[in-house]
Design brief:
GO terms for molecular function: actin filament binding; ATP binding; microfilament motor activity. This protein is α+β, with helices and mostly antiparallel strands and 1100 residues long. It contains 36 helices and 24 strands. It is elongated.
């Protein structure tokens, strides 16, 4: 039996090769190297001729599907080829080691001015394409770098900016040094040693001559909760460890910095330094934590705390920060660490339930923090232990102090630490970096967006909620730019391609950001209440969106640990990448970006100029925005609302620019080189929308150009004869002359569209060596001459056809004239012909009169009537001769004479009848009686006939009425059936979308479970498990007399060829052809992408 090789799903490798053993109506039996499984048709994909060959662009594969995409990426990854194209989208796999000569200056130079696809895939090619598009289209460009944490987004962003600056920068590396300054915004997580904990949109500005003139950075959503605590195995921001490891000894003593174990804000997470064998020797023993001494240092090719401190200090110096200003920055960072060591305990002496500083190092930490910030120690103590309140009585109200409880004081301390660090981070980016980067004569820019990828942990809070909200918006932008707009262009240009469906996440975005009912607005409303509660907020969300598909209770999570949460403790949101369970306990606290008024006023009066500047500028901004600070009351500044506004501005900016995409992929969870986890990578590809893009590119034309642009681009390479042509004709002539395959391009109304990679081949041909170009020009001229000669031939043939047409018309004109003469003759002589015919009829009547006269008894009367008849007959013959020969006679005279003859004959008839009336009176009476009898009979027959007709009419009316009723009922049934069919199709589409979402939820839960060691409830509809449709079909079949659902395809064929049982034979034929039809539908859907092959038969 011939076996069909297919890609079948696998829980470990994503897809493996198997062979079809048997085909069923809904499931296919597949044999792999490990097992035999039954898989749904939509889970199988055909295998190409050579599955061991890799290609630069996945669109060049024989079959375009997620299985071949994964296999091609795997083949290239094993050869250290980390970049792959999907049309114009770049997929980048993080190798977790340095690949030699991949990012050298020589490599960078090779990609300058090269079309996409000419050289192997590279992130430099995307940067070059963005620059060339900006120059050609006179429009700013954006590059969206996306992916999970640890996928390499930050490094890809660095290389793109390096390419732009070194290729067209007047001061090479000036802007690139900005990216090297990652100390304040990056940290170690369980998935990435150098994870960006904020988003940034870096703009490289160009002047009219397309040279770099400056840049600008917009940053989004710094993760402030990391400042006060980290998860196990994670670290705080790099700058804290850099100061502890690399700060000179004198400054270290001045700032009173020791090792990470001595600071509560660092000791909760990983306390080991990143270092190398060389830098490890430069770190003093007293600066190393216990874990560092026991487990040694952490190793990473990019992060080195000791050396990176020098890079950070140098970068700040490069941006014009003096030594004293750098010292103030380091003081603020150190003060944050010392603030974390200030602890509190209940004060038994305070009758109002206040608290005091805890014994131990808290007093020293408070004094050190106050000194570093330029504050009075007692004022700082008082602001941390109490808050200032103002009553509403009196002229201005009474001011009094309200003591804080232990947890309230801790929250005030953490809020102050977060405010100090976040405002310092904003200051570094906006007041130092952006101010130091000049913007002179900027016209266009190329922006690179690097923002945290989709995040999912076992414990997810407000930070993950905001990050995933951002990724939902970016995914929608990706769908609109790549899928919706692409198909709209095809339809507008009249290409007539099939519409492709994709899962739209607009309902999820509405759930998150809808005005009034969205989760962000509900959170803001809850935060404004006098006593906000996380449980009340959670219940409000569930009640407001009861029945929403994207929102569910935590107990419906596929991860077992999440099912232990109460309904008012979490939200399960089904994102585009899978379901994520958020714990809402800290949502309200993290959504408020304000300090107590007393603390804010204290910071504004600090002796440290930097601290004073940070809070003074912020207070001025709040006053401009209408956010007045009232002493004592905790003002509310929504973090979520601010982030939503920034995100909407970013999306609007992206929509106004040309867009390019880089999809970064994380190859494994352990962040080690040369380890390819297929199922993890496949999940990332699905979440990023790449599999849907493949379906579009399979029948799409991703590269396109206006006729005018192509004309202006290549007319300089051609002769003056050709360059003077119409742009559309110019393109057609050019493509014909080059001998391009018509399947590789298609002409629209205003543009020419190319298959993936074909525009690069065309561009390479046009920009080849002069000799080859001269031969091409000669081909074009030859083709143009041939075309024009063919046009002359066509014109000659057209003239000959016109001549033959005129001769044909001439012969037909004679026929027309003959018919006209015939018509005129008939018109002029018609009365003579009609008169002659009437006279001949009158002669017939004369004969009847003669016969009638024989009934007279008198011979004399008979003779007299015969003589009169002869006279009348002579008159008729004379008149006939006159009509034939006399041209003077006209129609009126002819009619009078004919009428006179008619009256004469009628008179003779009347006279004759009078004569024979007496003789035949008896006969007439008898005839009258006979006539009366016949009339009575006829009347009876007529009456019976009328009754019969009436009866039939009633029957017809009754039948018509019944048929009308039946037709009305039938029409209603047809309408109902159509509505039911549409409803069923809509429900099936919804079921398919939900099945896709369930699959993503399960894959995401498995990934979290693999990282945390938790369990997963496998209640999904797996491709290897029989679907609901299969069960329904099996149930229907069970009611039949013969159940063939478990019969093999080969068994059915054998029964058809050998069985004599008619009933069994008919059932087997029906089942056989049903399965064959399903199989051929699958073959047609997964046909080869380059050619239209003949439909293959089912496996034997």
């Amino acid at each position: 039996m011939e076996s069909q090789k297919v890609w079948t799903p696998d829980d470990t490798d994503g897809y493996v090769i198997g062979t079809i053993v048997d085909i069923g109506l809904d499931l296919v039996t597949v044999q792999t190297a490990q097992q035999v499984s039954r898989v749904a048709y939509n889970g199988l994909f055909p295998v190409g001729d050579d599955q061991s060959k890799d290609v630069d662009d996945n669109c060049a594969l024989m079959f375009l599907n997620e299985a071949t995409l994964l296999n091609n990426i795997k083949l290239r990854y094993n050869k250290d080829k980390i970049y792959t194209y999907v049309a114009n989208i770049l997929i980048a796999i993080n190798p977790y080691f340095e690949i030699q000569k991949l990012y050298t200056t020589e490599t960078l130079t090779k990609y300058q001015g090269k079309s996409l696809g000419v050289l192997p895939p590279h992130v430099f090619a995307i940067g070059d394409k963005a620059f060339r598009d900006m120059r050609a289209m006179k429009q700013s460009q954006s590059i969206v770098v996306s992916g999970e944490s640890g996928a390499g987004k930050t490094e890809s962003t660095k290389y793109i900016l390096r390419y732009l600056c070194e290729s067209w920068g007047t001061q090479i590396g000036q802007i690139e040094k900005l990216i090297l300054d990652e100390a304040f915004g990056n940290a170690k997580t369980v998935r990435n040693n150098n994870s960006s904990r904020f988003g940034k949109f870096v703009e490289i500005h160009f002047n009219g001559k397309y040279s770099v003139v400056g840049g600008y950075i917009s940053h989004y959503l710094l993760e402030k909760s990391r400042i006060c605590g980290q998860s196990v195995g994670e670290r705080n921001y790099h700058i804290f460890y850099q100061l502890c490891a690399g700060l000179p000894q004198q400054l270290c003593l001045k700032l009173k910095l020791t090792n990470p174990d001595d600071f509560l804000y660092l000791s909760k997470g990983c306390t080991q330094y990143f270092a190398s064998s060389q830098s490890e020797k430069n770190i003093g023993s007293e600066r190393k934590s216990g874990d560092h001494k026991k487990k040694s240092f952490l190793s990473d090719p990019i992060v080195d705390d000791y050396n990176n401190f020098k890079s950070t200090d140098t970068a700040l110096c490069h941006f014009g920060v003096t030594e004293s200003e750098r010292l103030q920055i380091y003081k603020v960072v150190a003060a944050v660490l010392h603030l974390g060591n200030v602890c509190f305990e209940d004060s038994p002496e305070d009758t109002r339930g206040g608290c005091k500083l805890k014994g131990g190092n808290s007093e020293e930490a408070l004094k050190t923090a106050a000194d570093l910030l330029g504050l009075d120690t007692e004022e700082l103590r008082q602001s941390l232990l109490s808050r200032l309140m103002q009553s509403k009585g009196g002229f201005k109200g009474t001011t009094y102090l309200v003591p804080l409880k232990v947890h309230e004081a801790q929250n005030a301390r953490d809020a102050l630490a977060k405010a100090l660090y976040s405002k310092l981070f904003d200051f570094i980016v906006t007041r130092i970096v952006n101010k130091a980067i000049p913007l002179n004569g900027n016209k266009y820019y190329v922006g690179v967006l690097d923002i945290a990828g989709f995040e999912y942990f076992q414990n997810n809070s407000f930070e993950q909620f905001c990050i995933n909200y951002c990724n939902e918006k970016l995914q929608q932008f990706f769908n609109e730019r790549i899928l919706k707009e692409e198909q709209a262009i095809y339809e507008k240009e009249g290409l007539g391609l099939k519409h492709i469906n994709f899962v739209d996440n607009q309902d999820c975005i509405d759930l998150l950001e809808a005005r009034g009912t969205g989760i962000l607005d509900l959170l803001d409303e809850e935060s404004k209440l006098p006593k906000p509660s996380a449980s009340h907020f959670t219940e409000t969300v569930h009640s407001t969106h009861n029945g929403h598909y994207r929102l569910a209770l935590p107990r419906k999570s596929k991860l077992k640990d999440h099912r232990e949460l109460r309904d008012d403790e979490g939200l399960l949101i089904r994102h585009f990448a899978g379901a994520v369970c958020y714990q809402t306990a800290l949502f309200i606290e993290k959504n408020n970006d304000a300090l107590h008024g007393s603390l804010e006023c204290l910071m504004s009066d600090a002796n440290n100029e930097l601290v004073k500047q940070l809070f003074t500028v912020d207070n001025q901004q709040n006053n401009l925005n209408g956010n007045k600070i009232s002493s004592g009351k905790l003002n509310f500044i929504s973090v979520g609302g601010k982030f939503r506004n920034q995100l909407n501005e970013l999306i609007a900016k992206l929509k106004s620019n040309g867009t390019h995409f880089v999809r970064c992929i994380k190859p494994n969870l352990n962040m080690v080189p040369h380890k390819f986890e297929g199922s993890q990578i496949l999940s990332q590809l699905r979440c990023s929308g790449m599999t849907t893009v493949l379906e579009l590119m399979q029948q799409g034309y991703p590269s396109r150009a206006l006729f005018v642009d192509l004309y202006n681009m290549y007319k300089q390479y051609l002769s003056s004869k050709l360059s003077s042509l119409d742009p559309r004709m110019f393109c057609k002539i050019l493509f014909k002359a080059l001998g391009l395959n018509e399947n590789d391009f298609r002409f629209g109304n205003t543009k020419v569209f190319f298959r993936p990679g074909k525009f690069a081949e065309f561009d390479q041909i046009m920009r080849s060596d002069p000799q080859h170009l001269a031969s091409l020009v000669s081909k074009v001229e030859k083709w143009l001459v041939i075309t024009r000669w063919k046009q002359v031939q066509w014109c000659s043939v057209s003239v000959i056809k016109l001549k033959n047409k005129l001769l044909y018309r001439r012969s037909k004109i004679v026929t027309i004239q003959k018919n006209i003469r015939k018509h005129l003759a008939m018109k002029n002589y018609r009365f003579r012909y009609l008169g002659t015919m009437k006279l001949r009829k009158l002669r017939g009547l004369l004969k009847e009169i003669s016969d009638l006269s024989q009934k007279l008894k008198s011979n004399d009367e008979k003779q007299r009537y015969l003589q009169q008849m002869n006279v009348i007959d002579g008159q008729i013959m004379s008149l006939i001769n006159s009509l034939r020969t006399d041209k003077r006679i006209n129609a009126i005279d002819s009619e009078k004479k004919v009428k006179a003859c008619d009256e004469a004959i009628n008179g003779q008839i009347a006279s004759l009848k009078g004569k024979i009336k007496e003789e035949e009176s008896l006969r007439k009476v008898q005839e009258a009686m006979e006539t009366e009898r016949k009339q009575r009979e006829e009347e009876e027959k007529r009456r019976q006939k009328e009754e019969e007709l009436k009866r039939r009419k009633l029957e017809l009316e009754e039948r018509f009425k019944q048929e009308s009723q039946l037709f009305s009922v039938s029409k209603e049934e047809v309408t109902a059936a159509l509505n039911l069919q549409q409803q069923m199709e809509k429900e099936q589409e919804e079921i398919r979308n939900r099945a896709i979402q369930e699959k993503l939820d399960y894959e995401l839960a498995v990934r979290i479970a693999n990282e945390s060691g938790s369990g997963v409830n496998d209640d999904r509809n797996s491709p290897t498990v029989m679907s609901r449709t299969t069960n329904a079909n099996a149930t229907k079949k069970s009611h039949k007399k013969i159940d063939l659902s478990k019969w093999k395809y080969s068994d059915l064929r054998d029964i058809i060829n050998t069985s004599c049982d008619i009933e069994l034979l008919e059932a087997c034929k029906e089942e056989f052809h049903r399965r064959l039809k399903v199989y051929h539908s699958w073959k047609l859907k997964n046909s080869k992408s380059k050619e239209n092959f003949a439909e293959q038969r089912a496996p034997d």
